[in-house]
UniProtKB/TrEMBL annotation:
It comes from Vicugna pacos. GO terms for molecular function: isomerase activity. Belongs to the lipoxygenase family. Gene3D superfamilies: 3.10.450.60, Catalase core domain, Lipoxygenase-1, Domain 5. Pathway: Lipid metabolism. The gene is ALOXE3. Its cofactor is Fe cation. Keywords: Cytoplasm, Dioxygenase, Iron, Isomerase, Lipid metabolism, Metal-binding, Oxidoreductase. It is found in: Cytoplasm. This is Hydroperoxide isomerase ALOXE3 isoform X2. Residues 2-120 form the PLAT domain. Its main location: cytoplasm. Residues 95-687 form the Lipoxygenase domain.
Length: 687
């Protein structure tokens, strides 16, 4: 008689355990064991429990190939969910399809992917959008009834890469409901859900009790805006409130605000922005001229061309307005970036004056506020939601659909997809839906959002996606005090080193990448669904070498984690003082100078209820709830081989050093930049 020891670990999450009966079957090259119930005295599968069992067979099974788990209702009780964190039989290996030759194993890989492709379905949200998961709400996820069949590798001790549903390294057939219902990597934990509610309810209730959420009309005084969230001030939000009018701070936000990706260095002025030296000479001062500064690489442009034809919307029954400004900035000898000129349209002419720092204070402030409104629209819709949320959803979907649980790239990417499908599903149900929050607070509404995102994706390139390439292409590598760039490049390098080691371990050469049909299907599906098969995007549709794979994976992980933190976490800090980030404008862009007053300025800004609804959203999305997993944190041990584990430890050490460097630098800054401090970066797009 042969006796096999089976060690079962139940996840430590709330409600991870089960009262159902669990059975196991081992399958080897020489036969399979009888179906055996796993049962000890007391409750076997409580949250966090680790139990050992013996599986007895009449003869040895040979090389172990599969492990099947069966879950059946206990007595009269209803079936519940179970998060099986790990089952250990012997040591594992993650494997690509090229390393599996037995027909049984290949069949299991195929059947696993077929089951998941049926469960995780693509859907077109709107023309020109990346593909999304085909669910109308998260409740539909939970009601979907599926079962899963995984792939195995011989003799495995493997962390449960997909949550309670699968056992990487062994196949599991679980005849119970809903892959998605059981999946803690996708579904918000009770801790996170509760935390979100506790963040949202007090702030919204406070505004409601003071009548702010229902109050229409203009703000009477700028100072009244300070009182919206009196108890939720931060060092940065207070700094913004004090310095928002200053040209130096206006320029600073292009480097270290929530949208630090807009600037391009100019060698010559575009014809659509006819700025002359005489216009800007008072700012440049003696000893230089505009042409000289262009030649030195000190002139930069923020161009909001994408807003030129965006549809506009009505708020509180009134038509809103949008501008498509051009903002020219100068890097002065003191190393500060300051605005030189602002034109509020893409077409120069007598009705589109070029506003200058030498104009009246109110004219110049209004012109800068129009630029900040354009910043809001481009940042929220494209930089933030399109380029992190929606693209990361497409990456998550392709990973779930095309890579089996035992695949090393699946194990590498899974932690960076945590909660992304749910948060996007919630966003579509509450923010992007008709008459949702986008329709209530922005000057372009949902129709403008659809236009802006589809246009943005049509112009998005692989160069934009890869931080080092983007910085180089925009000509911003030499700007001083660009903390987003400096911190981002360090984190990119740390991710790249980690990914290189993982890829090098599993893919020794070009052939191993080219012949991995699952990997090629994965990248092909991303190309088709995320970037709509657009060749001009420069995104790969096929990977031919380990180097190409490393770059693509590095960019995906960076954008799912660090980039999202950079463009999301500061929204409350920079937006709670509404004039710094107005979501709508109620008067058209000025066509003449000398007409702006405090009253006309207040009548252009969003109304009271619009302001408060938007600030409430800023507060909610900037407060990362509990249940965080910072970048490089992998509590579910998907990799258990020694080499990947050493790589993970080295990655964590490198991130810790980056954090120490950032905190040391921040001690000397008037306004610290902490959005890319690794402990504050979530592994995935989860809020």
């Amino acid at each position: 008689m042969a006796v096999y020891c089976v060690r079962v670990t139940t996840g430590s999450y709330l409600m991870a355990g089960t009262l159902d009966n669990i059975f196991v079957t081992l399958v080897g090259t020489c036969g399979e064991s009888p179906k055996q119930r796993l049962d000890r005295l007391g409750r076997d599968f409580a949250p966090g429990s680790v139990q050992k069992y013996k599986v007895r067979c009449s003869a040895e099974l040979g090389e172990l190939l599969l492990l099947r788990l069966h879950k059946e209702r206990y007595a009269f009780l209803s079936t519940d969910s179970w998060y099986c964190s790990r089952i250990r039989v012997t040591a594992p290996d993650a494997r690509t399809i090229c390393q599996d030759s037995l027909p049984l194993l290949l069949d299991h890989r195929k059947r696993e992917l077929q089951a998941r492709q049926e469960c995780y379905r693509w859907k077109v949200y709107a023309p020109g959008f990346p593909g999304i998961i085909d669910v109308r709400s998260f409740e539909e996820m939970e009601s979907d009834k599926k079962f899963a069949l995984t792939k195995t590798t011989p003799c495995a001790d493997q962390g449960n890469s997909s949550g309670n549903r699968y056992l990487p390294g062994f196949p599991m057939k679980i005849d119970i409901p809903s892959l998605l219902y059981m999946e803690p990597n996708i579904r918000y934990s009770a801790t996170k859900t509760t935390s979100l509610l506790f963040n949202a309810i007090p702030a919204s209730l406070g505004m409601k009790l003071r009548g702010l959420l229902d109050r229409k009309g203009s703000w009477k005084r700028l100072g009244d805006i300070r009182n919206i969230l009196r108890c939720h001030k931060t060092i940065t939000s207070e700094y913004v409130t004090e310095h928002w009018r200053e040209d130096h701070f206006f320029g600073y936000q292009y480097l270290n605000g929530v949208n630090p990706v807009m600037l391009h260095c100019l060698s010559s002025l575009p014809s659509k922005l006819p700025v002359t030296h005489d216009m800007v000479a008072p700012v440049l001062g003696p000893g230089t001229c505009l042409q000289t500064e262009l030649e030195k690489g000190n002139i930069f442009l923020a161009d909001y061309w994408i807003l030129a034809e965006v549809p506009v919307h009505c708020l509180n029954g009134r038509t809103q307005y949008v501008a498509a400004p051009l903002c020219l900035l100068w890097l002065n000898p003191q190393g500060a970036l300051v605005p030189l000129a602002i034109q509020l349209s893409q077409t120069p002419g007598p009705n589109s004056p070029i506003f200058l720092p030498t104009d009246s204070d109110w004219d110049w402030l209004l012109a800068k506020t129009w630029v900040r409104n354009s910043e809001f629209l481009v940042h929220e819709n494209n930089t933030h939601f399109l380029c992190t949320h929606l693209l990361c959803e497409a990456f998550a979907m392709a990973t779930l659909r095309q890579l089996p649980l035992c695949h090393p790239i699946y194990k590498l990417l899974l932690p960076h997809t945590r909660y992304t499908l749910q948060v996007n599903t919630i966003a579509r149900a509450t923010l992007l839906n008709p008459e949702g929050l986008v329709d209530k607070v922005t000057s372009i509404g949902r129709q403008g959002l659809l236009y802006l995102m589809s246009t943005g994706l049509a112009h998005f390139t692989y160069t934009n996606f890869c931080l080092p390439d983007s910085l180089r292409a925009r000509g911003v590598l030499a700007i001083p005090n660009y903390h987003y760039r400096d911190d981002g490049l360090k984190i990119w390098a740390a991710i790249e080193s980690f990914v290189s080691e993982i890829v090098g371990y599993y893919y020794p050469g070009d052939t191993s990448v080219q012949q991995d049909s699952e990997l090629q299907a994965w990248v092909g599906e991303i190309f088709a669904q995320a970037f709509l098969g657009r060749e001009s995007s420069g995104f790969p549709r096929r990977l031919c070498s380990p180097g190409e794979l490393v770059k693509f994976l590095t960019a995906i992980i960076f954008n799912c984690s660090a980039q999202h933190a950079a463009v999301n976490s500061g929204q409350h800090d920079f937006g709670v003082w509404m004039p710094n980030a107005p979501s709508s404008m109620r008067q058209p862009p000025p066509q003449t100078k000398g007409t702006t007053t405090l009253k006309s300025y207040l009548d252009t800004l969003p109304e009271v209820n619009t302001t408060c609804n938007n600030i409430l959203l800023f507060w909610l999305v900037s407060q990362e709830p509990k249940d965080q997993r910072p970048l490089g944190t992998y509590p579910d041990e998907h990799f258990t081989e020694d080499a990947p584990r050493r790589s993970i430890a080295a990655f964590q050490n490198r991130l810790a050093q980056i954090s120490r460097d950032i905190r040391e630098r921040n001690r000397g800054l008037e306004l610290p930049y902490a959005y890319l401090d690794p402990p504050l970066i979530e592994n995935s797009v989860s809020i």
